[in-house]
Every structure is written in structure tokens, then in C-alpha cells.
Amino acid sequence: MTIKVLIADDQAMVRAGFAALLNAQEDIEVVGDAPDGVAAVTETARLRPDVVLMDVRMPTMDGLEAAKRILSAPPERRPRVLMLTTFDIDDYVYEALRMGASGFLLKDAPPGDLIAAVRVVADGDALLAPSVTRRLIEECFKARPALRRSSRLEALTPREEEVLRLIARGLSNPEIAASLFVSEQTVKTHVGKIFAKLELRDRAQAVICAYETGLVTAGDPREQ
């Protein structure tokens, strides 16, 4: 199955270079491009790509706002969004993941990393592992006062809360199963219910949710 990609970047040479690289892959096709955020939103709605490569900083409308609008579409029309930047990891990462972006990649990453990233997010996985996401969020929340427990957590059972807390620590399903002395299938069932109840797309968003709802506190030694 061919992965359809849209490239949004204000530099024509970047768009052309990425397109040449991705079109050379048998399983990837670049169906369009956009020089700014407004065009990215319009072309995404028109072309229905599977993955949008979105530059963070663009004229007219930046990549974060464009991603927000694209990711607000109904699930059946919502592509995966992979954010691109020339800057190192910072608050952009947190905001992009919070909105539902599937990953974050530096524009000067090796070509193989870009190709792999497109395949990973097209397959429905988050590019950033939960453990990496956790470290990023720890930095974002470190200087903020601890959040009070959110009423969103009331939708979860005590066991589901426990599983969410372990996801926030960066544990995989097998690791959670070992920690709770249950089967991996039982953990998968809990994870599916957590995602459905809290309207989460992936484990990266689950980590963010755990911090934003006050279930996990940045810097808490009990969560190490």
C-alpha cells in the first residue's frame, strides 16, 4: 500500500529535495506540497494524504496552527502529521504532540531517518517513544506548579489509572504486564479503554495527559 505524503515548507528547495527522496521509495508517493500553513490546510483537505510533513515556522500561518486545524478534522479525514524544524527540541515539541502530531524531526536528520519516520507514523505509531516524550514533558512542567487532579480521570477505573501512570513512566505493554502480574492482552485491553475514554491517539498523548491531569507530577521521585 502506497503512503501518500504532502510536504509543507516555505523553502522550495527543501520541498523539492524531500519530494525527490521520498518519491524514490517504492511505497511512498508525494501527492502535493504547500509553501505556507494556509496552503497546507487547503491542500490536505483536497488531496487527503496519509502523512503531512509540516515545517514549524512558515509565513501566513505557522506549522503549529496549520497542524491544529488539520488534526481537528473528523478521524476518517485526519492524516498523520510529522513536524519538521531546524531547531532542537523545545516547547514546540510539547505543543505539537499535545495537539495530536505523531512525531517531531529535525530537518537536517539523515535521509534514512526521514524515510523511516514517514513509515512509522503512517503505520499509526508515534515517532517519539513514551520515554522520550516523558523527558520532554518533565522539562516543560518542571518550572510550573503541580497541577490539581483533573475530573477527566473520573472516567477511569483505579486499574486504568495505574496503567496510565505506568505508560507515563515510559513502560511498554510487556513491562506493564510484568509490573502488575497480569497478561499482556489484559494490558492491551486496559490501554484501549484508556485511549477511548480520554480520546487519546497514541502513547505519546497518553504521557502528556497523565501530566496535564495531575496524575503524574514532574520531578516526583516516586515516578522515576
TrEMBL record:
Q: Which Gene3D superfamilies match?
A: 3.40.50.2300
Q: Sorted alphabetically, which CDD domains does this protein's record hold?
A: LuxR_C_like, REC_NarL-like
InterPro entries referenced in this protein's UniProt entry, alphabetically: CheY-like_superfamily, NreC/VraR/RcsB-like_REC, Sig_transdc_resp-reg_C-effctor, Sig_transdc_resp-reg_receiver, Tscrpt_reg_LuxR_C, WalR-like
Q: Which residues carry this modification: 4-aspartylphosphate?
A: 55
Keyword Ligase recorded: no
Q: What SMART domains does the database record attribute to this sequence?
A: HTH_LUXR (SM00421), REC (SM00448)
Note whether Nucleotide-binding occurs among the keywords. no
Keyword entries, A-Z = DNA-binding, Phosphoprotein, Transcription, Transcription regulation
| The protein's name | Response regulator
The organism encoding this protein is Glycomyces mayteni
The organism's taxonomic lineage, starting at the top:
Bacteria, Bacillati, Actinomycetota, Actinomycetes, Glycomycetales
